[in-house]
Design a protein that fits this description.
Blueprint lengths: L1 E3 L6 H17 L5 E5 L4 E4 L7 H9 L4 E3 L7 E3 L3 E9 L6 H18 L5 E3 L4 E4 L2 E11 L2 E9 L16 H5 L5 H14 L3 E2 L4 H15 L2 H6 L9 E7 L5 H13 L7 E7 L12 H8 L5 E4 L2 E5 L5 H11 L7
Parallel strand pairs: 1-2, 1-11, 3-4, 12-13
Antiparallel strand pairs: 2-6, 3-5, 6-10, 7-8, 8-9, 9-10, 12-14, 14-15
Helix pairs in contact: 1-6, 3-5, 8-10
Length: 333
């Protein structure tokens, strides 16, 4: 386990970095990560928060900075009285989601126990209680073969009067003494070392992906207000839906698509879906692909969610034209 304490100085970028770490571990072989950091002052909604867009805008009008994170669970407030804890680990295809959540909760429990805080974790939710009061709020997220517990510990000073925080309490309130956020932060870092976790660093590729996630997702009103994430982090998504195993016509579709995107590989993401194989955790599926699946239109090419070509092989030129029509113009320097 690598321990990271990097703080990007922005709540939105910090949340984006959490997801960048999850995506990179979930797509390649990397060491598990424990990240400990503080915050500036933002209300952070869970990925599937029940708040409406109007409610989100009302909170913003009250003066709050509102963001949305990648993980499930209740809202929390990243603020000077809060210490964030993000754990990212691989998960095995043979392991159930509940088992993975249990593993992540156990890691968080071990860390906080070593720091001197014996919390009772609710393994299904990612939250934890001290003396019956909820002082740790978190949730889980999955991406391909990676899993993440993303949350944190209320320490003190943060405003907890909003009804959406329900039964959340700070450590200071529960213990009846003033607890300093800096002390808790330092204890958690030292506890990680006592557990044998090694100091790590954020890689340049992590930062690049975090910046891209911020621009494409975390700063988006669609994500903040309605939990709608982009289909791709590139300029265009093309989904190729094929049989399993692929037939000769499916292979012909693949060749046509390969020719149609020639020279556009840096701007276009291609996902190949095999019928009946499901989808990797955390990877969105477009409405056009759902339609192709329900109506058994196979093979099929779906561009930015539109089901455009299916069953009969199209001409390369027609596919290329459809791609260019939907590809945003590159910004000039």
């Amino acid at each position: 386990m690598k321990v990271l304490t990097a703080d990007l100085g922005s709540d939105g970028l910090n949340l984006a970095l959490d997801e960048a770490l999850l995506r990179r571990l979930g797509s390649s072989s990397r060491d598990p990560v424990a990240r400990i950091y503080s915050g500036e002052g933002s209300l952070v909604l869970g990925a599937r928060s029940g708040l409406s867009a109007d409610q989100v805008r009302a909170l913003e009008r009250s003066g709050l900075s509102v963001l949305r994170r990648a993980s499930s669970g209740d809202p929390y407030m990243i603020a000077p009285g809060w210490v964030s804890l993000t754990l990212v680990t691989p998960c095995s295809p043979s392991e159930t989601a509940s088992k993975t959540c249990e593993k992540l909760s156990s890691l968080a429990s071990d860390l906080l126990s070593a720091a001197g805080y014996e919390l009772d974790f609710e393994q299904a939710t990612g939250s934890a209680r001290l003396n019956g009061s909820r002082v740790f709020i978190g949730g889980f997220a999955f991406y391909r073969s990676g899993a993440m517990l993303q949350g944190g510990l209320w320490v003190g000073d943060a405003e907890l009067s909003f009804p959406i925080f329900r039964d959340a309490r700070s450590l200071s309130e529960v213990l009846g003494i003033a607890v300093e956020t800096k002390v808790v932060f330092e204890r958690m870092v030292e506890a990680a070392r006592e557990l044998g976790w090694e100091d790590g660093r954020v890689e340049d590729e992590d930062l690049k992906l975090a910046d891209l996630l911020w621009r494409k997702k975390y700063s988006s009103r669609a994500w903040i207000e309605r939990s709608l994430e982009p289909l791709t982090l590139k300029d265009l998504l093309i989904e190729l839906y094929v049989a399993n195993p692929p037939t000769s016509i499916c292979k012909e579709f693949a060749k046509i698509l390969s020719s149609a995107i020639s020279g556009l590989e840096d701007r276009v993401e291609v996902r190949i879906w095999r019928r009946g194989m499901g989808r990797p955790p955390g990877v969105p599926v477009s409405g056009g692909l759902v339609k192709a699946s329900k109506e058994s239109r196979i093979p099929a090419i779906v561009i930015n969610g539109e089901l455009l070509f299916y069953c009969r092989p199209p001409a390369v030129g027609d596919v290329r034209k459809a791609i260019l029509k939907r590809l945003p113009r590159e910004e000039e320097d």
